[in-house]
Amino acid sequence: MALLLLYSPYKITESVGFVVLAALTCSVEASAWAEAIGKAGPSYAFSLDSPIKFLDYAFIHIPVKGLWLMYKTFISSSLLILIIISSSTQTILGEPPESTVQDNFINGINLLYNNQFDQASALFEDEIKAAPKAPGGYFYLAMVSWSRLSIGYWGEKDVKEFSQRIDKTIAVARENIKDSTADSWTYFYLGGALGFKGRLRLSEQNWFASFKLASEAITALKTVQKMDPENKDVLLGLGMYDYYTAKLSGLLKFLTYIFLHHGNTEEGLRKLHLAAYESIYSKTEAKSVLLYIYLFMENNPSKALPLARELANQYPRDHRNRYFQGLSYIQLNMDEEYNAVQKELIFNAGNPPGDTLAISWEREALYLEASRLMIRGYYESAREKLDEILLKSDAENDPAMLAWPIVKKGMSYDLEKNREKALAFYKQVMAMPNGAGAQFLAEKYIDSPIKNGDPFIGY
Known about the structure:
Blueprint: H1 19-24, H2 30-40, H3 44-47, H4 51-61, H5 64-76, H6 79-85, H7 99-113, H8 117-130, H9 135-150, H10 156-178, H11 184-203, H12 207-227, H13 234-246, H14 250-259, H15 265-278, H16 283-297, H17 301-314, H18 319-331, H19 335-350, H20 358-376, H21 379-391, H22 400-415, H23 419-430, H24 438-447
Helix pairs in contact: 2-5, 7-8, 7-9, 8-9, 9-10, 10-11, 11-12, 13-15, 15-16, 16-17, 17-18, 18-19, 18-20, 19-20, 20-21, 21-22, 22-23, 22-24, 23-24
């Protein structure tokens, strides 16, 4: 993260071609799939040897009603995995390790994670001028656009800019392949671009197209590993595939054998840790992925804490990592340390780092305290903090901190068993022209109320 969460109010971790897993994470009701599959015939799944053939077959042979049932349940509840995979915005891949190019891309990547988008754009544009036939610069320039989408700017102009830039990356990479000048990094960027284009199609609810793009992305990713087995950056995407496919169950688990492969959580975590500490370009992204996994999937704040602290210190302009540091302290009942994080956020509101907005730090402090109060069960007090944020909201410059406090108020009422009020807030988010990603949680909880212990109480 839409998705889904194609984006979130903050950054949402991406991965090469990960859209295919996003599609598989839809909590499709067994009855819906059973009806669709049953009407198509009992043996079709075993006669198809690729996801593409399945999709082509589905369009022709599965009744429209069956497809709609599959689609409806998919759209309504594919959030949980995507919201995890979908907070740091950028999948950081690589470029041939020539010292100048390598240094420039690493510098640009750091600028992106530190929310310095204009500086990053200038650097990547210079790289494009220096090497107009290499896909790397185009890819990272597209990631600047994606970074803006990921923090809630989903205007028509923003989406169009991203689409043009990602299509240019694909075109340049494929031209290199056609001319037989492609190396492993060409396929790396091709896979990344196809994956992001697939995520855009997913946000448009065109999930069949997203499946096809994802299949192509996976092929490119595996080609990288074959061409360069020592490439540690590729372990970011492969590790995510292993981990998240292993988290599927039931019929969805079966579908992974058709569309991807069965996963392994331990193997996925192993690869992600290798990427976090041994890759060239993927270190920060892998750490971000692990942070989300440990906070929202593994319920292991002890492992999340050092990652959040490291990222917050490395990228001081991005308050989201400091938020997750505070959230880890909440879950560990480390009140003194939590208070220190709150004081730092408030200090930054009075002394904002760089050219960041003071009000954004103030909103983050209030949002973190609202999360603490909700986790502790003080729902009315949490709503008071959320109302303070809404009084200071700015739909133009911080759309996330308009939509997410509203959906969080709905969650608080659900936790109080006041379903009618909860639904009113969820529907308010669904009606917003820019829900900044919160609409996908709202849609999920419209279908089924949030429960105590849900990790996304703290999101």
